Amino acid sequence: MGFMAERAANRMGxxxxxxxxxxxxxxxxxxxxxxxxxxDFEPKxxxxxxxxxxxxxxxxxxxxxxxxxxxxxQLREKGIVSEEEFEAKKKQLLGL
Length: 96
What we know:
By secondary structure, the chain is mostly helical. It folds into 2 domains: 1-42; 62-96. Helix content is 62%, strand content 0%. Helix 2 (64-78) packs antiparallel against helix 3 (83-94). It starts with a helix and ends with a helix. The relative contact order is 0.08.
């Protein structure tokens, strides 16, 4: 197998692993939202008689898409994901 063919096969394998991982993450997120475990973007329901608000935590939890963008940026730097694929996924994550 030539160098270019081997490189193409490695890229195709990496893309397939990424797609599989992304599919598993979407399914995990869907299951968490169905089971009521996911609360990052859903509005919180407050009881009718709400207690006085507690002070805000020092660091708010970072949204899920930020970690995903950082991971994609690392893959782009390593050459696993092309610039076009990175931009397309970024637009999808940010809802643009």
